[in-house]
Write the structure tokens for this entry.
Amino acid sequence: EGKKVYMIAFTNAVCCQLAEAITVHKFLRLAYRGDLETPCTVIWDEVFYVNTYTLARMAPLRMLEIEWIFAGDHKQLEMPGHWRGQVCENKLFGSSYLPPDDVELSEPKRTIEPNFWAFQMRVRNATEEELPEIKAECKKRFRAQGPFEMTICLSHAKRRRLNDTQIKEGLEIPCTDSLTGSFMCHSGLRLVGTSRAKCLVNGMQYEVLEARLPHILLEELEPRANETHCRHIEITPEKLGQEATVAYAVTNAGVQGKTCRKQLRICDVENPYMTAQHLYVAISRATEERNVRIQ
């Protein structure tokens, strides 16, 4: 219809996977500066991670000529608590902040195995009463052997402990995210961007190709939208410690949008805070059932 279309998402890492997408923060800055081209259509990815702060900032936009299209998993609204500490109400979009009728459900399939996909849907739709039985079945069903490409856990404290166990010889990088205050950088090490600085993308995963002075060579693990090859980046050790941390283990919240094509380990299943939604998100990162281990 000749209208401008904006694609928005919460994190820079997700935006890199979507053609011409911008973050919610950048979109709001455009709106508050009066730089939005209206009338327009806004496609909001992973909208169900919205928190009350973002809703409050979005509220004035309802007076503009904007058509909203929401994409995401509606089961997020049924979680008892938000991973960032915000409570998600089931009737969130029944409020006057955003139109309630334009919600679309997107279900990306990472696996082509029908039985594995069916079990993922069973986990996703499990009630609180069914969850103990589901967890017990997961332990029996998923028994892959390492080494693991990715480990998923609930808390940042456990993530840091697991990452600090992966000590090898290499170049020592000072890092405030590490419990020991640094990590050893070597070829093959997996890292994740943790900063909004310009060099590395927050949430993007990288692999170290060369670890030597004066620059460390990194490769992004997935190509960006409309690109066929993964980007290579040179960065100094000082900047690397400021903008990245070890990604051997990642939190459940930080694994959104990621795909694991090799061995995947999922921890904290018996943690009382591990909901069916947490378990579904973790399991659905894998492409093959035989690659998953629950412990």
